[in-house]
Specification:
Blueprint lengths: L3 E7 L2 E7 L9 H15 L6 E6 L10 H7 L4 H20 L4 E5 L2 E3 L1 H8 L2 E5 L3 E3 L13 H8 L2 H10 L2 E3 H6 L5 E3 L4 H13 L3 H14 L4 H16 L2 H11 L8
Parallel strand pairs: 2-3, 3-4, 4-6, 5-7, 6-9
Antiparallel strand pairs: 1-2, 7-8
């Protein structure tokens, strides 16, 4: 069966599942395009409040297909560069999505699979999940934003160990470091991710989009720049319909109702 992205709707949450039987849900150009299209569709549907990214058959994603990479050594370098550009667009689709994106990780999140998990806003993982950036073990360096996200999620020494040694890290270690939000029994990661999505769905979608943008801007802004970003975002939220509804609902002690 060919690699494909499975799409399912769970209430206000869209569940995107990597499926590539026999190849541990390895990625490729078709998966990049399907995922980008799915995120493009999310932006057109206001009823979707969150996205969960997961993998089929108890495995999140093994990253790239080494056989395909070996074949690409016989092609002009631009062939591989174009392929990585496709992966990069997929990464940007996750980070630029105005809805929260939650990774539900079972089995392995390896290589670009780990990069994509780190690109998400939150991560729920099974106790037995392993996170691996073993590029160095096949003479390569990270792609898909892996080194960028790891360097911002981990202390320098931990990020160096992860990428320079290429060992498999248990989910418990990343949970202790604050990278994984929720650690659950194996087989329960998707349910935990959906619980996060349900809680988020009850909150202001406009506010969540603004918070996600602020988090994305913070790493590259000075304090003075970020204070201005926060001010402008606060004012925008206050005068947005979501802001009026949320404040009124809080004062009236009732659940907020967002369009």
């Amino acid at each position: 069966m060919a690699a494909q992205l499975l799409i399912d709707r769970k209430g206000s949450t869209l569940v995107l599942t990597f499926s590539n039987p026999g190849f541990r849900n390895a990625l490729g150009p078709e998966m990049y395009e399907s995922t980008m299209q799915a995120f493009d569709d999310v932006e057109k549907d206001a009823s979707i409040r969150a996205v969960v990214l997961t993998g089929a058959d108890g495995m999140f994603c093994a990253g790239g297909n080494l056989n395909r990479l070996l074949e690409n050594r016989n092609q002009p370098p631009q062939v591989q560069a174009d392929s990585i550009d496709g992966l990069n667009r997929m990464t940007r689709a996750i980070t630029s999505c105005t809805r929260p994106v939650i990774a539900a990780v079972e089995g392995f999140a390896a290589g670009a699979g780990m990069s994509l998990a780190l690109a998400c806003d939150m991560i729920a993982a099974g106790h037995g999940a392993k996170f691996v950036m073993a590029y160095v073990k096949v003479g390569l360096s990270p792609d898909g934003g892996g080194s960028w996200f790891a360097s911002r999620s981990l202390p320098k020494q931990a990020a160096s160990e992860l990428m320079m040694e290429g060992g498999a890290w248990p989910a418990s270690r990343l949970h202790a470091l604050g990278v994984i939000n929720t650690l659950v029994d194996d087989g329960k990661a998707l349910a935990a991710a959906l619980e996060h999505a349900t809680r988020l769905a009850a909150l202001s979608p406009h506010s969540i989009a603004r918070i996600k943008a602020l988090i994305g801007q913070a790493a590259d802004a000075t304090l003075e720049q970020h204070l201005i970003h926060e001010r402008d975002s606060f004012v925008t939220c206050l005068h947005h319909a979501n802001g009026g509804e949320a404040i009124s609902a809080f004062l009236e002690k009732r659940p907020a109702r967002f369009a």
